[in-house]
């Protein structure tokens, strides 16, 4: 029996006609099952169920639906009875699949092992991309990573084999590029243990970043909970041209909404037309799926739940080119469910005229500080930021497509023609083995080497701090420009004085050639080796290779049909891996006289709470990685990082040491945070660590979505000030009591009593977003504990 894709190919060639070919594809789609991916031939796309659920919900709500609503509500566990109110109710959903990168997969798989379940319930994959340190170049760095991380890779490989999870080996590429090439498709709901999972929205899917505990729920076959997202519409008009790029669209949106403006919402991009107009406009004006993926990817930087574009002909073209013509043909049949309804309503609408959009560069230290490239040099001089660029870095999950590499090579080729190379150091990170092999074959890689570039491994590398940087000393003030997505303090190289700016790959390349932030490629001239001035032309490149993609080396490990006999080894003496012990259950009492571990001043991302870089090697060992707890957060008491007062000894010391001391003494503690606490990466270690070291409550002005959920999953209480000004009432030397927990209920504020050292006290109110099942997580000690309780009851 022939696979559907081969059967379709045979009929298309036999008929040799456009309209007749499409008709036969349509007929076959109605009769045949289409696999979700080449790697799971027996797992099928179920558009019929999506259609059925959407029609049930549309009839109930009696209004047009946005595209986001169609796909989200199309995956409801019970569409007939689910309460639906955007921004308020919690939805119970059935995602189609799970993806995990290797740094977060360790803890996710350790939790899944603890669940006692024999096999994952939905298609799931592990991607080895986070543990490869950029040092001397792709091949050497990959060999070194395989040697250093052998124990972890073996654990993930054998755990994948035992529990039915596909395993992408180190060197295969960045998780989000692999998903785009193989797993994302119009209408899919995919959750991934990485905050940039929304990259898959470039192919019309709802792809959401989550913590490992959420992934465990889905892999266990439990309905996944998500607060019903609001929908922000971004209306795009006009057309990109010149040096403007898709990166400039999201940099502009980030400048408008800021790092928390998208919290609790899906960003839905659309054009000026109706149902058909959306699709045709997107195809004509933005051109290609990978450009849409870039925009969706960086939606994580504004706190969005995810981002999405409507299905269109360019998505179809990308699916065709990546060997998924059968999926594209099926999506054509169900297109009305893969675009928004005419007349649908958004909670907020932003309009951007692409014809007026200028190249942007955002930073330093935050991805929402937007500047036109034409202005950034003057702004840098005014602010005292270094204008000389030490390193330019292109790639990352945001910008490492074939077209991205081609546009950068087009800029580099012009410089080479005039005898110039990069004045700055220059690195290139291919997004996948397929991209690496194809740009090698087509000559882009050699052009980028010739201009002075170093090709790194197909991995995250410097974007996540995996960079053994040698050209500066720690504490040395310097500037780098990247095509990455985040530029928080110390993120790329662990140096708090590195001023990192984010922009498009072609602008990074141009600035690296010039060596300064003061260069504007739209207007400024360079001087060639012959002394003559010349101006760089706006780059152009093929959106997809003219030949088929070169797949490169085979880096995928299929899980066996029966993995029950597979042994998964975790040594009790390992410094990299540690089996998990259940967290203690709530004792039924109020949380009284808690000490304050730290009152955080200003921005506190998950990088501040649980640093990456050299700490990534401990992601599978909870006790060891807890030694980085909050070491990047600024203590309001002394303005220092990793220096807090031990309330029992009155001595100042590192945050993790102080937390361990409190735990040893049996003292519960709390953290006080500012706005958008926990923004950035999805890493659940930022929730596991405080729980492991005795934390009970995190009180802030506001939370980032993923981190708030992660805290709940681990049995902590994430609470927010009913009056944000009450942040100023709490001092690091105070004691806190959370009272009324016996009556803990959804929507009911909790009372906090602040006890000052002078004996006085005052009471403030704290809000929360817990629903009934999440309260059960807290009472059981964690979501995993609650899952086990339910399993025991059912058996």
TrEMBL record:
Gene3D superfamilies in the record: Aconitase, Domain 2, Aconitase, domain 3, Aconitase, domain 4
Reactions catalysed according to its record: citrate = D-threo-isocitrate
Aconitase A/isopropylmalate dehydratase small subunit swivel domain residues? 596-723
Return the GO cellular component terms, semicolon-separated. Answer: cytosol; mitochondrion
The top EC class is lyase
**InterPro entries given for it?**
Acnase/IPM_dHydase_lsu_aba_1/3, Acoase/IPM_deHydtase_lsu_aba, Aconitase/3IPM_dehydase_swvl, Aconitase/IPM_isomerase, Aconitase_4Fe-4S_BS, Aconitase_4Fe-4S_dom, Aconitase_dom2, Aconitase_mito-like
Location within or outside the cell:
Mitochondrion
Instruction: Give the EC number(s) under which this enzyme is classified.
Output: 4.2.1.3
Q: Where is this region: Disordered?
A: 543-570
Chief localisation class: mitochondrion
Family matches, as Pfam families: Aconitase, Aconitase_C
Keywords carried by this UniProt record: 4Fe-4S, Iron, Iron-sulfur, Lyase, Metal-binding, Mitochondrion, Transit peptide, Tricarboxylic acid cycle
This protein's pathway reads: Carbohydrate metabolism; tricarboxylic acid cycle; isocitrate from oxaloacetate: step 2/2
State how the cofactor is bound: Binds 1 [4Fe-4S] cluster per subunit.
Q: What cofactor is needed?
A: [4Fe-4S] cluster
Give GO BP annotations, semicolon-separated: tricarboxylic acid cycle
Q: Which residues form the Aconitase/3-isopropylmalate dehydratase large subunit alpha/beta/alpha domain?
A: 69-515
Instruction: Cite the GO molecular-function annotations of the record.
Output: 4 iron, 4 sulfur cluster binding; aconitate hydratase activity; metal ion binding
- Family affiliation: Belongs to the aconitase/IPM isomerase family.
Q: What does this protein do?
A: Catalyzes the isomerization of citrate to isocitrate via cis-aconitate.
Question: Can you say what this protein is called?
Answer: Aconitate hydratase, mitochondrial
Q: Which organism is it from?
A: Chrysolophus pictus (Golden pheasant)
Organism placement in taxonomy: Eukaryota, Metazoa, Chordata, Craniata, Vertebrata
């Amino acid at each position: 029996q022939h696979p559907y894709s081969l059967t379709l190919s045979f009929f298309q060639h036999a008929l040799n006609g456009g309209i007749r070919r499409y008709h036969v594809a349509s007929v076959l789609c109605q009769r045949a099952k289409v696999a979700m991916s080449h790697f799971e031939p027996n797992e099928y796309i179920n558009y019929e169920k999506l259609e059925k659920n959407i029609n049930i919900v549309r009839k109930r709500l009696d209004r047009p639906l946005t595209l986001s609503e169609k796909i989200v509500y199309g995956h409801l566990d019970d569409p007939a009875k689910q309460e639906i109110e955007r921004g308020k109710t919690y939805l119970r959903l059935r995602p189609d699949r799970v993806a995990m990168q290797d740094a977060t997969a360790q803890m996710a798989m350790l939790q899944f092992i603890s669940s006692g379940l024999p096999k994952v319930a939905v298609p799931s994959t592990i991607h080895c991309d986070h543990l490869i340190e950029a040092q001397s170049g792709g091949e050497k760095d990959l060999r070194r990573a395989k040697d250093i991380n052998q124990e972890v890779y073996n654990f993930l490989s054998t755990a994948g084999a035992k529990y039915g999870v596909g395993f992408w080996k180190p060197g295969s590429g960045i998780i989000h590029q692999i998903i785009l090439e193989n797993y994302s498709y119009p209408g899919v709901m995919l959750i991934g243990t990485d905050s940039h999972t929304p990259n898959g929205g470039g192919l019309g899917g709802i792809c959401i970043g989550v913590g490992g505990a959420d992934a465990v729920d889905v892999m266990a076959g439990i309905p996944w909970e998500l607060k019903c997202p609001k929908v922000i519409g971004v209306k795009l008009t006009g057309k990109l041209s010149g040096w403007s790029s898709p990166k400039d669209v999201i940099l502009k949106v980030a400048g408008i909404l800021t790092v928390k403006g998208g919290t609790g919402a899906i960003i839905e991009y659309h054009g000026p037309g109706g149902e058909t107009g959306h699709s045709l406009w997107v195809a004509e004006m933005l051109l290609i799926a990978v450009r849409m993926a870039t925009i969706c990817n960086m939606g994580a930087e504004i706190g969005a739940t995810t981002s999405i574009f409507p299905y269109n002909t360019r998505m179809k073209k990308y699916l065709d080119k990546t060997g998924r013509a059968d999926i594209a043909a099926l999506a054509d049949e169900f297109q009305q469910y893969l675009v928004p309804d005419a007349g649908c309503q958004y909670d907020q609408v932003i309009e951007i005229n692409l014809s007026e959009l200028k190249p942007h560069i955002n930073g330093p230290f935050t991805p929402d500080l937007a500047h036109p490239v034409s202005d950034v040099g003057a702004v840098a001089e005014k602010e005292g930021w270094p204008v000389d660029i030490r390193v330019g870095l292109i790639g990352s999950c945001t910008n490492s497509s074939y077209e991205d590499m081609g546009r950068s090579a087009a800029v580099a080729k012009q410089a080479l023609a005039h005898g110039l190379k990069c004045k700055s150091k220059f690195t290139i990170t291919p997004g996948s083995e397929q991209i690496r092999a194809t740009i090698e074959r087509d000559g882009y890689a050699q052009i980028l080497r010739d201009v002075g570039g170093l090709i790194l491994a197909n991995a995250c590398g410097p974007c996540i701090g995996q960079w053994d940087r040698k050209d500066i000393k720690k504490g040395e003030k310097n500037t780098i420009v990247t095509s990455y997505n985040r530029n928080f303090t110390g993120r790329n190289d662990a140096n708090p004085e590195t001023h990192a700016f984010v922009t498009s790959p072609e602008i990074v390349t141009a600035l690296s050639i010039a060596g300064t932030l003061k260069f504007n490629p739209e207007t400024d001239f360079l001087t060639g080796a012959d002394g003559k001035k010349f101006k760089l032309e706006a780059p152009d490149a093929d959106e997809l290779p003219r030949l088929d993609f070169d797949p490169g080396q085979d880096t995928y490990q299929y899980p066996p049909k029966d993995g029950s006999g597979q042994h998964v080894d975790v040594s009790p003496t390992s410094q990299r891996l540690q089996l998990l012990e259940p967290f203690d259950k709530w004792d039924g009492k109020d949380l009284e006289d808690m000490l304050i571990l730290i009152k955080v001043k200003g921005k506190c991302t998950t990088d501040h709470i649980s640093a990456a870089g050299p700490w990534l090697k401990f992601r599978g060992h909870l006790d060891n990685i807890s030694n980085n707890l909050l070491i990047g957060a600024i203590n309001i008491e002394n303005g220092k990082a990793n220096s807090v007062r031990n309330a029992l000894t009155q001595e100042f010391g590192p945050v993790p040491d102080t937390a361990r001391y409190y735990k040893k003494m049996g003292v519960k503690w709390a953290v006080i945070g500012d706005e958008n606490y926990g923004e950035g990466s999805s890493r659940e270690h930022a929730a596991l660590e405080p729980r492991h070291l005795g934390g009970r409550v995190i009180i802030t002005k506001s939370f980032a979505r993923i981190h708030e959920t992660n805290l709940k999953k681990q049995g902590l209480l994430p609470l927010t000030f009913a009056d944000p000004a009450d942040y100023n009432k709490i001092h690091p030397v105070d004691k806190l009591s959370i009272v009324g927990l016996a009556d803990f209920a959804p929507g009911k504020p909790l009372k906090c009593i602040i006890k000052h050292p002078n004996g006085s006290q005052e009471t403030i109110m704290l809000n929360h977003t817990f629903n009934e099942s999440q309260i059960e997580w807290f009472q059981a000690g964690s979501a995993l504990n609650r899952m086990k309780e339910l399993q025991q009851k059912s058996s």
